[in-house]
């Protein structure tokens, strides 16, 4: 018994056992730290790769959007982008495994695996569940003309997938093209008033379709395209103008009735030809001034609000204290000076690009509501030309100089009018719109005014220029951005 007690009290060798146990614990801790240290760089790399893949997807979205902006057919739908879609694979490739060019590292250009790649696909908003995403009815039964390969509502769904090393990221958006309201005439008067005063005998309002094939700055290169239907010379909305008690059409006709020279200066579609509008229905005079149900104030207002609210629109404020003016040069130019005659913080005096046919612009001026109808929201001086959409809201547009515009000139708001004054020269190819939203404007103020001493006035319909305007970036939006 004593021997066992002696052996149990013997502590020799305990230290080595404890040392081995501590060593095992420390070895485990070390292995854990080594494991974490090996994983952290991989985790960081995965996060970085995923971020790069997302940036590539974002780049794909922007590039795909630019491609869709420049995609259109005769109705300006996205149908050409949908060729090849099937029920089994509704997605059509816009960009396939592209690499961002010019990616640099350490001063050297690197492509391929270092830069990563992206793919962009698009499909029509045709599936049953698309309505919750687009806000549009889905399918041909809800939207006539909509199929997998045919777009009629100018809405499609686009996806871009970015890939960097092993990481991928996909972004999906809805792309919309704002539909221009119909412009059934060379001159369009859709407002609640359409008071017209044409004091010049010889002018040119022509609803035939004009186009050019080269050197479009030369007026003689614009010729009639007989394959497209004629529009009205002057179009009004249907119904009776409240404050004068006569029809909008009659109100416009009153400015030229009885003057043979004026009547010969208005050309276009013949209202007496049922279902007509083609070249065979061409006429001059009162029969090419007509009320058209397409000219809806509500549609016009909805379109104006959509372009005003577009994130890329810069609204230039014109006030009664500091009214805006555009001044060109002796030779008409699209790079003009915009000024308002004021100094200090309220003063504006800078250059403004009015666009070209290859790069049309949305130029938007907004003024003050003036019940006296005396406010000129935008005055045009000397040689000015531009292309795209020119909007003047809540103020008159007055041309005092040489003015040429390819696209749409749209005057809209309360107590407004388009005036072409003494000494002015005007050439508009596309459509002129004077849209008065106010019923109660006093008599003697006109939505469309042509001074008797104007040098010349010409407004001609042009589907070519209307299509150009429809394809502008400002008529397109991306919404419902989501990551998948």
Labels describing this entry:
12-stranded mixed β-sheet, elongated, 8-stranded mixed β-sheet, 20% helix, single chain, 484 residues, alpha/beta
Describe the structure.
The strands form six sheets. Strands 7, 9, 12, 15, 16, 17, 18, 22, 24, 26, 28 and 30 form a twelve-stranded mixed β-sheet that branches. An eight-stranded mixed β-sheet has the order 8-29-27-25-23-19-20-21. The protein has seven helices and 31 strands. The chain has two domains: 51-177, no CATH class; 185-473, no CATH class. Helix content is 20%, strand content 33%. The protein starts with a helix and ends with a strand. Mean pLDDT is 88; it is low at 104-113. It is of the alpha/beta class and 484 residues long.
Say what oligomer this is: single chain
Structural class of the helix and strand makeup?
alpha/beta
- Characterize the largest beta sheet: strand count, sense, and whether it forms a barrel: 12 strands, mixed
Discrete helix count: 7
How much of the sequence lies in strands comes to 25-35%
Enumerate the spans where pLDDT stays under 50 for 5 or more consecutive residues: 104-113
- Write down the overall geometry: elongated
Number of domains: 2
How many beta-strand segments? 31
Q: If you compute it from the alpha carbons, what radius of gyration comes out, rounded to the nearest whole angstrom?
A: 33 Å
Helix content: 10-25%
- Straight-line N-to-C gap: 78 Å
Mean residue pLDDT: 88
């Amino acid at each position: 018994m004593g021997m066992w007690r002696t052996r149990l009290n013997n502590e020799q060798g305990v230290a080595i056992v404890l040392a081995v146990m501590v060593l095992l614990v420390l070895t485990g801790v070390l292995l854990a730290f080594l494991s974490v240290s090996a994983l952290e760089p991989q985790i960081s790399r995965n996060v970085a790769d995923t971020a790069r893949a997302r940036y590539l997807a974002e780049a794909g979205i922007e590039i795909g959007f630019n491609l869709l902006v420049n995609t259109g057919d005769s109705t300006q739908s996205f149908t050409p982008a949908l060729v090849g879609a099937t029920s089994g694979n509704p997605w059509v490739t816009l960009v396939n495994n592209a690499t961002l060019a010019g990616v640099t590292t350490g001063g050297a250009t690197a492509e391929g695996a270092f830069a990563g790649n992206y793919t962009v696909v698009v499909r029509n908003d045709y599936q049953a569940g698309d309505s919750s995403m687009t806000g549009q009815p889905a399918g041909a039964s809800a939207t006539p003309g909509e199929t997998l390969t045919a777009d009629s509502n100018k809405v499609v769904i686009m996806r871009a997938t970015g890939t960097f090393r092993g990481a991928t990221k996909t972004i999906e958006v809805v792309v919309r093209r704002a539909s221009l309201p119909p412009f059934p005439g060379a001159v369009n008067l859709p407002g609640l008033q359409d008071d017209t005063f044409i004091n010049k005998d010889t002018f040119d309002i022509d609803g035939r379709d004009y186009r050019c094939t080269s050197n479009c700055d030369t007026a003689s290169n614009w010729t009639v395209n007989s394959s497209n239907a004629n529009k009205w010379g002057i179009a009004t909305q249907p119904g009776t103008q409240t404050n004068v008690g006569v029809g909008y059409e009659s109100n416009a006709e009153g400015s030229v009735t009885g003057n043979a020279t004026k009547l010969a200066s208005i050309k276009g579609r013949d209202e007496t030809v049922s279902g007509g509008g083609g070249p065979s229905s061409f006429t001059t005079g009162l029969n090419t001034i007509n009320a058209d149900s397409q000219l809806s104030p509500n549609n016009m207002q909805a379109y104006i609000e959509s372009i005003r609210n577009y994130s890329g629109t810069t609204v230039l404020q014109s006030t009664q204290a500091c009214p805006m003016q555009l001044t060109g040069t002796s030779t008409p130019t699209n790079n003009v000076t915009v000024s308002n005659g004021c100094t200090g913080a309220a003063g504006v005096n800078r250059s403004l690009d009015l666009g070209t046919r290859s790069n049309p612009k949305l130029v938007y001026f907004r003024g003050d509501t003036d019940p006296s109808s005396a406010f000129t929201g935008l005055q045009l001086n000397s040689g000015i030309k531009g292309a795209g959409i020119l909007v003047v809201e809540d103020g008159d547009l007055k041309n005092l100089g040489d003015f040429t515009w390819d696209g749409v000139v749209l005057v809209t708001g309360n107590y407004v009018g388009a005036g072409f004054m003494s000494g002015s020269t005007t050439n508009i190819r596309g459509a002129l719109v004077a849209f008065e939203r106010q019923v109660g404007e006093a008599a003697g103020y006109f939505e469309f005014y042509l001074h008797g001493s104007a040098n010349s006035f010409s407004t001609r319909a042009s589907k070519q220029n209307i299509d150009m305007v429809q394809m502008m970036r400002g008529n397109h939006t991306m919404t419902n951005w989501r990551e998948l």
